[in-house]
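Lab meeting, item 3. Inverse folding demo.
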């Protein structure tokens, strides 16, 4: 029994699609073994092998790949920047704020300054599940009767600076249920 922590890229893409011109997905990420494995899983499991992928080693390659994907896809998922040589947070924030032309998202909370939307894992969900499961066990349910599950909820972060750049207006209900990132306000 237990809860497997999974990222929610398909749910993120679904949220982003309401602000996009179509459904094609681009993905820019660091060029390392971990990201290659994660990207392959995403592409196969969630996007039917249709995701257009750019691998980057340097900040310059990351920028070029991001700009290229915006020309070729309707939504760009921005993955992990760990391992990108010469990544500069201030420069990256300015670059993404000024150059984003399509809806962008990430599953990593630390990428909020660079994307329109983040849908990250919610550790609280695992804690709630663990508490409820413990109560079931204390109530007599056998551990073997409790199946393994995956998390289903995410922590939503909206970037108002990039929303302004894209002329995206979020609904009040979305704003009420999200954390807000704004570097300029």
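The presenter then showed the designed sequence:
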């Amino acid at each position: 029994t237990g809860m497997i922590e999974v990222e929610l890229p398909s749910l993120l893409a679904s949220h982003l699609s309401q602000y996009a011109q179509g459904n094609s997905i681009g993905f820019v990420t660091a060029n390392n073994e971990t990201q290659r494995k994660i990207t392959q899983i995403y592409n196969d499991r969630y996007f039917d092998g249709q995701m257009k992928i750019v691998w980057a080693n340097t900040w310059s390659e990351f920028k070029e790949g991001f700009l290229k994907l915006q020309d070729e896809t309707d939504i760009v998922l921005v993955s992990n920047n760990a391992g990108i040589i010469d990544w500069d947070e201030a420069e990256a924030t300015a670059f993404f704020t000024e150059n984003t032309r399509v809806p962008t998202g990430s599953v990593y909370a630390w990428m909020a300054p660079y994307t329109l939307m983040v849908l990250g894992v919610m550790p609280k969900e695992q804690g709630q599940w663990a508490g409820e499961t413990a109560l079931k066990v204390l109530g007599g349910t056998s551990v073997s009767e409790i199946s393994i599950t995956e998390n289903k909820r995410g922590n939503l972060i909206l970037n108002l600076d990039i929303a302004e750049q894209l002329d995206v207006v979020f609904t009040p209900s979305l704003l009420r249920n999200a954390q807000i990132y704004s570097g300029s306000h």
